[in-house]
Amino acid sequence: MRLIKTRPLLEADWPAVSQIYGEGIETKIATFETTVPSWDKWNTKYSPKCRLVAEIKDKVIGFIVLSKVSERDVYKGVAEVSLYISKAYWGQQVGQTLLNELINKSEKEGFWTLQANIFSQNQASINLFVKCGFRRIGTREKIGKRNNKWFDNQLLERRSEII
């Protein structure tokens, strides 16, 4: 097994991160996005406090980030998780490493609830989140439409036992 290292995601990682995000778009079950945004647009969407990349031998192979679910102060400790792994590294515990590291970091940053909206067809991701302590809340039926086809998402959440 190769040593997976995690560290904060930096702007200099954008070429690798955008390529991995593009691979996610190509699966058609990772995001409703159809194109990779610019760094500036992407950068404003995600919390600067909890952004991590995974590396093997200094090569970025995956990333995980949080986005706010609301601007309201009452929800300041609730965030949505986005996790992407390069296809070449699927099934090699990269996702589990990143998700567990993010959980620890998010609690230090004051997040008490993490949510994930995962395409129902993406069973590998659902299984990963459940393995890392998330529970299924329900199905968001026909939550989004792409290419004239409706998709369901599974809503999962993890409540901190610390906060």
Describe this structure in words.
This protein has 163 residues and is α+β, with helices and mostly antiparallel strands. It has a domain at 5-116: 3-Layer(aba) Sandwich (Aminopeptidase), CATH 3.40.630. The protein is built from 4 helices and 7 strands, in the order βααβββαβαββ. The chain has helices at 14-27, 39-45, 94-108, 123-131; strands at residues 5-8, 51-56, 59-68, 78-85, 113-119, 135-146, 149-159. A 7-stranded mixed β-sheet has the order 1-2-3-4-5-7-6. It is globular, with a radius of gyration of 15 Å. The N and C termini lie far apart (34 Å). The model has no long low-confidence stretch (mean pLDDT 96).
Distance between the termini: 34 Å
What sequence of helices (H) and strands (E) makes up the elements?
A: EHHEEEHEHEE
Query: How does the helix and strand content classify structurally?
Result: alpha+beta
The CATH class of the domain at 5-116 is Alpha Beta
